[in-house]
Write a structure and sequence with these properties.
Number of helices: 13
Helix content: 25-40%
Strand content: 5-15%
Largest sheet: 7 strands, mixed
Strand order of the largest sheet: 2-8-7-6-5-3-4
Shape: globular
C-alpha cells in the first residue's frame, strides 16, 4: 500500500452508496472539502463576508497551487475552468494571419475550438494524427514550418487515457522557439507535473477532477518572462496599478507582470476555499503515492478484463498511459444503463465505457467491477468464451 486508502476512503461517503469509477468526469466531494465550503458560507452568513480575510486566503491558496506545480505564485491565475484557460491562452499568443498552430487529432474539442476560433483572424490550425499510443516530439516535426508558432495538447487524454510526452514536446518547442500550451485537466492532482521542467508557456486546468472541488474553478499557469502574452480582456484586477479612486484612465492600462493579468474581477471564493482543503488532503497523501496507487489499480483492472476477454481501448504500458483512465471496448449505451442499474458510476465514451479511478478507490473496487461485468451475461462473444 502506498498510503492508508481506507482512511482516505472514509472522507468520501459516496463510496458507501455506489461503486464510483468516474473521477475523470467529476470527483465526489470529500467531507473536509464540504466543511471548508460550509465554513465559507457561515462567514458570509454571520459577517456578510470578511473580504480582506478572503482575499488573503486567495493568495495563500495561489501559493499552494504554485507549489503543487513547482511554479512561482506570480505564475498562477484563477479561472473558471479549463476551457476558459485554453481560450485565454489562444488569444494571448501573439498570432497573426498566416501563422499556424499544431494540435493533436482527436484531442479534447475545447482545446481545439479555442484555436479554431482564431481562423477568423487568418490563423491556421493543423491537426497532427497520432502514430502509436502516445504523442511524442517526432510526430510534430514534419508539420512545423517557418510560420508555426505553437503546439497545444492535453497532458492526458480524456477519451482513452493516453499520457503524452510533454517533456519531449516541450524540449522541441524550446528548440524551435514555439509556444507550448498544455491542457492538464486530467492530470492535475493525479500525476506530478513540474511546470518549469515541462517547458510549457501556459498550462490550463479545471479543479473538479483530480483537485477534488466542485465545478466552476480553474487554474492557469503562465511562465514568467512571457510579457508579450497579453490578455484579451482587461479589468481593474488585471492592472499593475489599479486606480484607488476607481476612475479609469487611458494612461493607466499596464497589466500585471504575472499571470494575474489574466484574472477578471471577482473570483470563485467558495471553490478557492474548497481548494485549500483539497490541497491539504492531496498533500497528506502525496501526488507520487496517488499516482503509484492508481497505476496499481489500473494494472489490476487490465488483468481482470484480460481474464474476461474484454479489450482495453488505448495504451497498456505504464509509460504511455495515464494511471487512472481506462476505456473498455463495450457498447457504451447498453453497458452504461446496465452498470447504472448495479449502482456503478462510469462514463460512456467515444470508444466504449470509461473507468476512471480516484485516490479513494481500492483493489476490491476493481474486483467487484469485474464481477459485475461477468454477471451481466452480456459480454461480447470473444469475451464470453474467455470468461
Amino acid at each position: 500500500m502506498h498510503y492508508d486508502v481506507a482512511a482516505i476512503r472514509r472522507q468520501f461517503p459516496v463510496t458507501e452508496r455506489m461503486l464510483y469509477l468516474d473521477s475523470a468526469h467529476q470527483t465526489p466531494l470529500a467531507t473536509s472539502v464540504r466543511e471548508a465550503l460550509l465554513g465559507f458560507y457561515r462567514e458570509g452568513l454571520e459577517t456578510a463576508g470578511p473580504k480582506p480575510v478572503w482575499l488573503d486566503r486567495i493568495e495563500q491558496v495561489r501559493a499552494r497551487v504554485a507549489k503543487l506545480l513547482n511554479a512561482a505564485p506570480a505564475e498562477i491565475a484563477f479561472t473558471k475552468n479549463t476551457s476558459e484557460g485554453m481560450n485565454i491562452a489562444a488569444n494571448a499568443l501573439p498570432l497573426t494571419a498566416g501563422d499556424n498552430v499544431l494540435l493533436v487529432e482527436g484531442d479534447h474539442p475545447n482545446n481545439a475550438y479555442a484555436f479554431l476560433n482564431l481562423r477568423r483572424k487568418g490563423v491556421e490550425v493543423r491537426f497532427v494524427p497520432m502514430n502509436g499510443e502516445t504523442a511524442r516530439a517526432e510526430m510534430f516535426a514534419p508539420y512545423i514550418d517557418a510560420r508555426t508558432r505553437a503546439i497545444s495538447l492535453s497532458h492526458v487524454t480524456f477519451h482513452a487515457g493516453h499520457r503524452f510526452d510533454i517533456d519531449g514536446i516541450g524540449a522541441l518547442c524550446a528548440e524551435r522557439r514555439l509556444y507550448f500550451v498544455i491542457d492538464a485537466m486530467q492530470s492535475t492532482g493525479v500525476i506530478p507535473l513540474d511546470a518549469g521542467a515541462s517547458g510549457a508557456s501556459l498550462i490550463g486546468s479545471g479543479c473538479h477532477k483530480g483537485l477534488l472541488v466542485p465545478q466552476g474553478l480553474g487554474i492557469l499557469y503562465c511562465r514568467q518572462g512571457l510579457d508579450e502574452l497579453q490578455p484579451a480582456y482587461l479589468a481593474m484586477s488585471s492592472l499593475a496599478h489599479p486606480p484607488g479612486d476607481y476612475i479609469a484612465r487611458a494612461d493607466n492600462m499596464m497589466p500585471k507582470a504575472g499571470a494575474g493579468r489574466f484574472e477578471i474581477g471577482n473570483l470563485n471564493l467558495p471553490d478557492i476555499h474548497a481548494l485549500d482543503a483539497s490541497l491539504t488532503l492531496i498533500e497528506s497523501v502525496g501526488l507520487s503515492a496517488i499516482e503509484a496507487h492508481l497505476y496499481d489499480l489500473g494494472d489490476r483492472l487490465i488483468e481482470r478484463i484480460d481474464d474476461l476477454g474484454v479489450r482495453l481501448v488505448g495504451p497498456r504500458n505504464r509509460a504511455d498511459r495515464s494511471p487512472h483512465i481506462y476505456v473498455l471496448d463495450l457498447p457504451a449505451d447498453a453497458w452504461a444503463e446496465y452498470l447504472a442499474s448495479r449502482q456503478v458510476r462510469v462514463s460512456p465514451e467515444r470508444d466504449g465505457i470509461r473507468i476512471s479511478f480516484g485516490l479513494f478507490n481500492t483493489a476490491e473496487d476493481v474486483d467487484r467491477f469485474a464481477g459485475i461485468l461477468a454477471e451481466s451475461g452480456n459480454l461480447p462473444a470473444r469475451a464470453g468464451a474467455a470468461a
